[in-house]
């Protein structure tokens, strides 16, 4: 299994440009999460999907951020227009729900996309 | 507001020492608590704890949950330089929605 695959690994862009981050979850997983990590705020959940349907997007900072999951094997996180404060490492994670009484989903994280907005 | 607080924020130890990391939480809905290890890249899963008082062990690492005290500890015995990492504690609020702490950075010197 290749794990969760994210691209690009690094992105440097200028303020105002559109940024698209991509994620391929582990095959068979039914949950997909987008997290953002910064020194100041740590790991923050942005949005998550269950069976391709967005469940909770309360962590999305503002309208400049959008996420889609058109099918079970692909998701995108888009920032338009980008701003310097969006600079962070963006992680995608996926999991397989193990049942009502099993506790948490155990998330498997991708390697992350490091975004720098100048 | 849900909170997960880890302490200390960082520590430096010598190889062979024992390390104890703390995680406390105040959340509206607790399902379980998880520990992750983050080296240079993605966090990797260590333990999940759902019941109080049950210790989970994996080699030199162990963790226990105290639901009465709303806290957990992660112990690392006989530390090695490969244990150097950020250790993250997270509480599952609902259906995999994890609230992470800020992490504890552990540096193990030879």
Oligomer: heterodimer
Q: Approximately what portion of the residues of chain A adopt beta-strand conformation?
A: over 45%
In percent, how much strand structure appears in the residues of chain B?
over 45%
Radius of gyration of chain A: 14 Å
Looking at the structure, what is the overall shape of chain A? globular
Radius of gyration of chain B: 13 Å
Share of residues in helices of chain B: under 10%
**First-residue to last-residue Cα separation of chain B:** 41 Å
* Largest sheet: number of strands, sense, barrel closure of chain A: 7 strands, mixed
Low-pLDDT sequence parts of chain A: none
Task: Describe the model.
The complex is a heterodimer of chains A (118) and B (110). Chain A has 118 residues and is mainly β. Chain A has strands spanning 5-7, 10-13, 19-24, 31-38, 42-50, 53-56, 65-71, 74-79, 88-95, 108-109, 113-117. In chain A, the strands form two sheets. In chain A, strands 2, 4, 5, 6, 9, 10 and 11 form a seven-stranded mixed β-sheet that branches. Chain A starts with a strand and ends with a strand. Chain B is mainly β. Chain B has no helices and eleven strands. Chain B has strands at residues 3-7, 10-14, 19-26, 32-38, 43-49, 55-58, 61-66, 71-76, 85-94, 97-100, 104-109. In chain B, the strands form two sheets. In chain B, strands 2, 4, 5, 9, 10 and 11 form a six-stranded mixed β-sheet that branches. A five-stranded antiparallel β-sheet of chain B has the order 1-3-8-7-6, with no helix packed on it. In chain B, β4 and β5 (43-49) form a beta hairpin.
């Amino acid at each position: 299994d290749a794990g969760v695959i994210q691209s690009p690994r690094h992105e440097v862009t200028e303020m105002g440009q559109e940024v698209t981050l991509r994620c391929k979850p582990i095959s068979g997983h039914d949950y997909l999460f987008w997290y953002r990590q910064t020194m100041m705020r740590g790991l923050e959940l942005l949005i998550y999907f269950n069976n391709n349907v967005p469940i909770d997007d309360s962590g999305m900072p503002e309208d400049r951020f959008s996420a889609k999951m058109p099918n079970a094997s692909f998701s995108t996180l888009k920032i338009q227009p980008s701003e310097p404060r969006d600079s962070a490492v963006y992680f995608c994670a996926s999991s397989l729900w193990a049942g009502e009484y099993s506790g948490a989903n155990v998330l498997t994280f991708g390697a992350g996309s490091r975004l720098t907005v100048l | 507001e849900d909170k997960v607080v880890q302490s200390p924020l960082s520590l430096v130890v010598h190889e062979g020492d024992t390390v104890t990391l703390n995680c406390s939480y105040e959340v509206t809905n607790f399902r379980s608590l998880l520990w992750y290890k983050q080296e240079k890249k993605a966090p990797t899963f260590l333990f999940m704890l759902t019941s109080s008082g049950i210790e989970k062990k994996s080699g030199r690492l162990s963790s226990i949950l105290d639901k009465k005290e709303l806290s957990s500890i992660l112990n690392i015995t006989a530390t090695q330089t490969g244990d150097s990492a950020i250790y993250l504690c997270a509480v599952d609020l609902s259906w995999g929605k994890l609230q992470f702490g800020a992490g504890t950075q552990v540096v193990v010197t030879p």
